[in-house]
Amino acid sequence: MIGYLDLILRLTIWFLLTSDLSLANIIIGVSIALLLPRKLTSPGLLKDWFRAIIEVLIAIPQAYFEAFEIMFRPHTEEGVTMERVKPQRTSGLIFLDIFLITFTPKTIVLKYHQKGWYEVHRILPRKKQ
């Protein structure tokens, strides 16, 4: 089941990049998704994938809220923090984590450290004086 989720993730990325659902593009996308090398790690748990999908669904309204918040209450402060990667994440789940962090307007992942950390840049609300 997990192999199918990795395949679906790769195909979703392909279709988002190409914006084409023609038969030829589907065949090319499936071929590329199957030919891309896979890292031999322990497969992600199904509950981790479902949790990631729920987090994506929550991130969409959060991104709109943050966009409006930035427009109406300017954010002039910045900060860089280190966030720990959740334990035993597959590369697909790490990609989704980075996508979720970067998807919201106030944060962006600057770097993924192989030792299990994300370097995250945040904009913060103006400090009250």
Main beta sheet: 3 strands, antiparallel
Q: Give me the strand/helix succession.
A: HHHEHEE
Global mean pLDDT: 83
Distance between the termini: 54 Å
- Please give the count of helices: 4
Tell me the overall shape: globular
Q: Please bin the fraction of helical residues.
A: 40-55%
Q: Order of strands in the sheet with the most strands?
A: 1-3-2
Detail the poorly predicted runs.
none
Summarize the model shown:
The protein is of the alpha+beta class. Helices cover 54% and strands 18% of the residues. It contains four helices and three strands; from the N terminus they run H-H-H-E-H-E-E.
Tell me what you see in this structure.
This protein has helices at 2-18, 23-35, 46-72, 91-103, and strands at residues 77-84, 107-113, 117-124. A three-stranded antiparallel β-sheet has the order 1-3-2, covered by helices on one side. The model has no long low-confidence stretch (mean pLDDT 83). Strand 2 (107-113) and strand 3 (117-124) form a beta hairpin. Helix 1 (2-18) crosses helix 2 and helix 3 (46-72) packs parallel to helix 4 (91-103). It is of the alpha+beta class.
